[in-house]
Design brief:
Elements: H1 2-11, H2 16-19, H3 21-46, H4 52-106, E1 110-115, E2 121-124, H5 126-132, H6 136-139, H7 151-167, E3 171-178, E4 184-195, E5 201-210, H8 212-240, E6 245-250, E7 255-258, H9 260-266, H10 270-273, H11 278-281, H12 283-291, E8 295-302, E9 305-317, E10 323-332, H13 334-348
Antiparallel strand pairs: 1-2, 1-5, 3-4, 4-5, 6-7, 6-10, 8-9, 9-10
Helix pairs in contact: 3-4
Length: about 350
């Protein structure tokens, strides 16, 4: 194939006359003068006297001498220009082919060019070799069936392509393929058809991406999210069933969360409390936070309802251990305080 290319390139090389039109014209003129001199010498010296035949020969010779430059200007020079243009076109096409071939080989996605009728692989790039662990010689000429898990999956993929061509003109889908060693991997496909002028399908251009690492990353994130969800559910269950109140406020002392125990003291729902200022729920807690008092027993008003409570305040930290809010843990001591008071009165008696 390379020999045929080099042969065709040699044929397109312009000859001396095409490359040097001025010298070619001078050679024609010199040849014309030389031939005219020879004709004149022949007629006047060898033939002794001019004759009608000699005159005719001289005239014919002069006409031919005029015809040669005309032929050169009308045919040889345009032919040389045409050959040069052809050479430039061939060079441009060759450079474009090399550029496309380089880009084709350098792409990270695997690319297969597949015959539409036989589904045999016509071309494969380096990335496709790496994805499937086959060499190019293994892939080219082989059926794509060897890349599928089984016959049923091979047929199913073919049906997907045809249906997508009818509906969208191309296929974008996820599928599971098989490597040379038999291991399977998740893949994404972008397939477009190459069509003839009559609209019939000739080939597929299939771009294949091995998304194994992406799927693993998604699976890892999903597992982390599931674990966090389980922990949140557990914590919510603990907080909901605690026999003490929990209130979480942000840095601006707005309530982010209040458990059922705290809501019962105020006789309000979570929707009514979350987002509201802490002072509207219990002004005494806000005063103690501002004063930096971390714990104690106080008389507090929860939405105008008075209770004696014991409380503890904790800072809620976020990234880089910065305080992002506060957690208030408290318990209604009203009944306990009544019992203590009654016991003291009995002791005095």
């Amino acid at each position: 194939m390379e020999n045929s290319k080099s042969g065709s390139e040699e044929e397109l090389q312009p000859n001396f006359f095409v490359k040097n039109p001025v010298w070619t014209l001078l050679l024609f003129i010199a040849a014309m003068l030389l031939m005219e001199s020879i004709a004149i010498i022949y007629v006047h010296t060898i033939a002794s006297m001019p004759s009608r035949f000699a005159e005719f020969s001289i005239l014919l010779f002069l006409h031919l001498c005029i015809l040669f430059p005309v032929l050169y200007m009308l045919y040889l020079r345009p032919l040389g220009k045409y050959s040069a243009e052809r050479e430039e076109i061939v060079k441009s096409v060759k450079d474009t082919f090399i550029l496309l071939q380089t880009a084709f080989s350098a792409m990270n996605e695997g690319i297969l060019i597949v015959d539409f009728k036989t589904r045999n692989i016509l071309e494969a790039n380096v990335a496709a070799e790496k994805i499937f662990n086959y060499t190019r010689d293994d892939l080219v000429g082989s059926s794509t069936k060897m890349l599928h898990l089984n016959e049923r999956m091979y047929e199913k993929f073919g049906e997907m392509i045809l249906n997508s061509y009818r509906e969208n003109g191309c296929l974008d889908a996820a599928f599971t393929l098989k490597r040379k060693d038999g291991t399977t991997f998740p893949s994404e496909h972008s397939i477009i058809p190459i069509m003839a002028e009559d609209g019939s399908y000739l080939r597929h251009v299939s771009v294949i991406r091995d998304v194994t690492e992406r799927v693993k990353a998604h699976e890892k994130v999903r597992n982390v999210m599931n674990t966090l969800e389980e922990k949140n559910t557990f914590l919510e269950s603990v907080i909901t069933n605690m026999f003490s109140g929990i209130i979480v406020v942000d840095h601006d002392l707005r309530i982010k969360m209040a458990n059922p125990y705290a809501l019962r003291l105020c006789a309000k729902s979570a929707a009514q409390v979350v987002g509201s200022p802490l002072r509207n729920f219990c002004p005494e807690f806000e005063e103690h936070l501002a004063a930096g008092i971390g714990s104690g027993e106080i008389t507090a008003h929860f939405c105008s309802n008075e209770y004696v409570v014991g409380f503890s305040l904790f800072n809620q930290t976020g990234a880089e251990n910065k305080t992002v809010g506060h957690i208030i843990n408290f318990k209604d001591l009203t009944e306990i305080m009544k019992i203590r008071k009654e016991m003291r009165q009995k002791e005095r008696l």
